[in-house]
Design brief:
By secondary structure, this protein is an alpha+beta fold. 24% of the residues lie in helices and 26% in strands. The chain has a six-stranded mixed β-sheet with strand order 1-5-6-4-3-2, covered by helices on one side. Strand 5 and strand 6 form a beta hairpin. The longest helix is centred in the C-terminal third of the chain and has 17 residues.
Length: 113
C-alpha cells in the first residue's frame, strides 16, 4: 500500500500557471466520480459540493486517453492514481480545471496537494 501511495505522490502533476480554476477538497473520500470505460474518462460528479461556483455533474473529467497535451495518456492515469490515493487515505486534494464556467465540459489539467 505504501508503494501505491508513494507512486501516486510521485506521479501527481504539479500546479501550473496555465490552469484557470481550482477547487480544494479537504477530504478526497467525499468526492464522487465515475469511470466511463467507453470514453476513457473519469467524470467528477460533485465538485459543486466543495465550491459552489463549479457547475453540475458530468461537466469535469480526467482524460485517460488523449495523446499529448496536459491530460495525455500517462498524465491522466497519474492524476487518477493521485485521486484514488487521496480518496483512500481521506487526505486533501486540489483539482485544477480548464474552465469552471464553461457551458460544455472541462478537462482536469492538474491535480495535487
Amino acid at each position: 500500500m505504501r508503494a501505491l501511495l508513494a507512486a501516486a505522490a510521485l506521479l501527481t502533476v504539479a500546479h501550473s500557471a496555465s490552469a484557470n480554476d481550482a477547487v480544494s477538497i479537504p477530504d478526497a473520500s467525499q468526492l464522487k466520480w465515475q469511470v466511463d470505460m467507453y470514453a476513457n474518462k473519469v467524470w467528477l460528479q460533485n465538485l459543486k459540493d466543495f465550491d459552489i461556483t463549479f457547475g453540475t455533474t458530468y461537466k469535469y473529467y480526467i482524460d485517460l486517453q488523449a495523446p499529448g497535451g496536459n491530460a495525455g495518456t500517462e498524465g491522466g492515469k497519474a492524476a487518477y492514481a493521485a485521486l484514488l490515493a487521496a480518496a483512500f487515505s481521506g487526505s486533501s486534494i486540489t483539482i485544477f480545471v480548464t474552465d469552471k464556467m464553461t457551458t460544455t465540459t472541462s478537462v482536469v489539467n492538474f491535480i495535487g496537494r
